[in-house]
Amino acid sequence: MNETKKTIAFGCAGEGRGHAARTIALAQQLQPYYRITIFTPYSTAAFIKEHLPDAEIVDIPVLNFGIEGHSISYIKTFTDNIPKIADVGTIIKTIRRKLKDLSIAALISDFEPFTSIAASGLKIPVMNLNHPGIVLKYFSIKPDAVAAKIGARLMMPPANRDLICSFYGGDIGPIIREDIKSRRVSDQGYFLVYTKQASRKIITDCLKNFTGIDFRIFPDPEKDFAEALAGCTGVIAPAGHQMLSEALYLRKPILAFPQKMQFEQRLNAIMLERSGWGLAGDINNAEKCISGFLSSINNFPYACSEPGMFNFNDSTLAAVNRIRTFIDTPKPVKNKQFNLVFS
Description:
By secondary structure, the protein is α/β, with parallel strands linked by helices.
């Protein structure tokens, strides 16, 4: 039976774990129908392999944000990625050969441009499926928004289909992995704190001033994140979409600290507040923000004036159905603007 299955590929970005979590959730549902190969950088490969032990994983270069403290530095982002930008032709050719060798029938790209460009050059149908593309739907002329829109266009080369998943304003709602959905939700009186390395000291130093409160800090390789999330009273975390979506799916109040100069996270935090399920924090005033969140924890959710714009429910099956229709319905493949660049 396996011989009759089409082989499809995922291109998964290596910045953070949100892209990998979506890839895992979708691949788990698609495995009965297709052979799956995942193109992803080393930074997310171990996390994916933990949840998809049988998946073939192909290592690709990572395009990463340059971080200074709790802020994105666009100068550092550019300089850190210069070697990959300079070698892009070789990178694309290598990926293209692998796609051809595997006889890939379609590519699902979660904000991963190298695989998208390579697949387009082979006339392989490409679907962009991600959350960061949400920035293209919202107007702002602030510098972080302009930078985010340019970045989204670069990370989402022209494709046959675009599908934005989001707890607000998306084509579909969030995609939630099975490890989260399978947990029994409870309130055991502690707060889950998820921190990036760059801001961990700021947050943990603030937490020392709150005596008698149980904070459980992640990432922690010795603790079960999904279990801790399902059992917590509330969440303190960055404003990454997947983190917020998983907490909202479990109906956990959130204090979100968006990274500076990161429009997507700023937008996520604004929408979190509008939903009534959380607060947007300022890392430069972290202690006051944490104090306000803890003191108001019993007031969530606040009234939402626009309930129709939010979707906290799992849309994994909706995404899977869109993907299967995309792969299995015969269609002409568009000519992409990148076809001749690296031939």
